């Protein structure tokens, strides 16, 4: 930051002292500033800048650049401070010849992150609780922080609606207008206001963060509702040929990604595993004819969809993982949701939800009568369906953070899945989509073997998973 610029906005001096520097700060200083506007901070109580500054109008401040104004808006003080610790970002905001759109999560979003932007769970699993101690730890933290900040910097301004661009981190995004608000895609993150428009760009305040896992087809994001789809689809009910107590429910024509729900008719009450969006009267009548529902269990956020409508119609609880609570974006006015906080949860007698993590922090599988309902927590691959004369090294499952973007899980995450599954015996798995049913007596061993094949293929030869066995 150029010293002369301090006087362009005198009221920002405190922010500039705390958050701005032409050079990266030591990591301990970064930690301190991230918490500086926490609820217990003396600065929060006494800082005169706690009076909310008005957001700019459509008028562009000529002769002023992004580095002059990034620190003046209290609502984004945390994120704006972090931008000063990433030299390529700080340099860009300070370069009048390079335009950018800054997508700044507001302070509330930053405080409520499940983990700090310099933290990566994989680092803790590989390096332990002191993953960010010492020089190497600070290097890891800075690398993670750079990835987070650069994912929120668009090297375009003006940025046109629908124009797909890559952020400085390389993830492709665009925005749409909905009800007079800009919404960043993928991820459906709303822009709550425009903080500033200056000579080399704009600062947009966001009510969320961007997640590089998200996938949207080339045709773009599409939106609909149950009412709009009412006369376009129907649900089909197919009984499992191997077990008449199991029914698969799918929507035709395909709606969304085409997943299936699985109805389990257990002696202790019926359980619906996972969720499809489409719900109509014939579906309600069919399930009620089988005895209704005692509970719904959803494996991970990609399948949350219309779960509140299902729960209301069947007057039953919906179980999801506490770790994934942040992905829920609708209020549960009737109290149907139940969060699974421990490693397992008995849904009804004999039916157990198992928290494996991996694909999402709280990704679940469901165990019943030597059967494992796996959704995307373990992803069934085509070679799993072939049982005879299997060549050594033939895999049956993959373990993915992002399936459409083909980003695999690291060894510690895969190992954690095994440790969650190891106490349970199973001889069949049911995936999230039609045709992903695998049955054979040695299936548990096939899961472990698939884990070792993937970890070895990722280039790891000393990972802890190689020490695991069925015993």
TrEMBL record:
SUPFAM superfamilies, per the entry: FAS1 domain, Metallo-hydrolase/oxidoreductase
Domain FAS1: residue ranges: 63-210
Top-level division of the source organism's lineage: Eukaryota
InterPro entries (UniProt xref): FAS1_dom_sf (IPR036378), FAS1_domain (IPR000782), Metallo-B-lactamas (IPR001279), RibonucZ/Hydroxyglut_hydro (IPR036866)
PANTHER family named in the record: METALLO-BETA-LACTAMASE FAMILY PROTEIN (AFU_ORTHOLOGUE AFUA_5G12770)
Record-given protein name: FAS1 domain-containing protein
Species for this entry: Zopfia rhizophila CBS 207.26
């Amino acid at each position: 930051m150029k010293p002369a610029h301090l006087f362009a906005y005198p009221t920002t001096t405190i922010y500039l002292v705390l958050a701005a520097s032409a050079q990266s700060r030591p990591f301990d200083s970064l930690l301190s500033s991230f918490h500086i506007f926490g609820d217990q901070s003396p600065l929060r109580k006494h800082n005169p800048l706690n009076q909310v500054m008005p957001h700019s109008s459509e008028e562009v401040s000529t002769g002023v650049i992004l580095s002059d104004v990034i620190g003046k808006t209290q609502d984004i003080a945390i994120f704006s401070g972090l931008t000063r610790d990433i030299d390529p970002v700080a340099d860009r905001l300070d370069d009048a010849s390079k335009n950018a759109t800054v997508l700044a999560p507001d302070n509330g979003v930053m405080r409520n992150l499940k983990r700090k932007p310099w933290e990566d769970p994989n680092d803790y699993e590989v390096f332990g609780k002191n993953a960010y101690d010492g020089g190497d730890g600070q290097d890891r933290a800075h690398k993670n922080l750079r990835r987070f900040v650069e994912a929120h910097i668009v090297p375009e301004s003006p940025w046109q609606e629908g124009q797909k661009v890559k952020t400085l981190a390389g993830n492709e995004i665009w925005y749409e207008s909905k009800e007079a608000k800009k919404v960043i895609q993928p991820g459906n993150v709303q822009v709550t206001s425009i903080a500033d428009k200056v000579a080399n760009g704009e600062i947009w305040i966001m009510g969320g963060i961007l997640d590089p896992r998200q996938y949207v087809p080339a045709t773009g994001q599409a939106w609909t509702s149950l009412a709009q789809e009412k006369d376009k689809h129907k649900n089909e009910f197919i009984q499992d040929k191997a077990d008449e107590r199991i029914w698969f429910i799918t929507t035709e024509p395909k709606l969304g990604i085409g997943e299936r729900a699985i109805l389990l008719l257990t002696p202790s009450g019926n359980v619906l595993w996972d969720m499809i969006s489409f719900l109509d009267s014939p579906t309600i009548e069919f399930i009620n004819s089988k005895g209704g529902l005692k509970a719904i269990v959803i494996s991970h956020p990609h399948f949350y969809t219309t779960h509140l409508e299902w729960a209301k119609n069947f007057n039953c609880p919906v179980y999801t993982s506490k770790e994934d609570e942040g992905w829920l974006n609708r209020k549960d006015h009737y109290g149907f949701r139940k969060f699974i906080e421990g490693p397992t949860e008995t849904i009804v007698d004999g039916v157990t939800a198992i928290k494996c993590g991996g694909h999402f922090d709280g990704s679940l599988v469901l165990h019943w009568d030597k059967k494992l309902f796996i959704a995307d927590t373990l992803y069934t691959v085509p070679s799993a369906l072939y049982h005879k004369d299997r060549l050594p090294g033939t895999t049956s499952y993959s373990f993915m953070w992002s399936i459409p973007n083909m980003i695999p899980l690291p060894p510690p995450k895969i190992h954690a899945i095994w440790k969650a599954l190891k106490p349970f015996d199973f001889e069949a798995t049911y995936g999230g989509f039609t045709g992903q049913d695998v049955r054979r007596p040695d299936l548990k061993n096939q899961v472990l073997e698939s884990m070792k094949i993937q970890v070895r293929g990722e280039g790891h030869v000393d990972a802890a998973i190689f020490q695991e066995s069925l015993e």
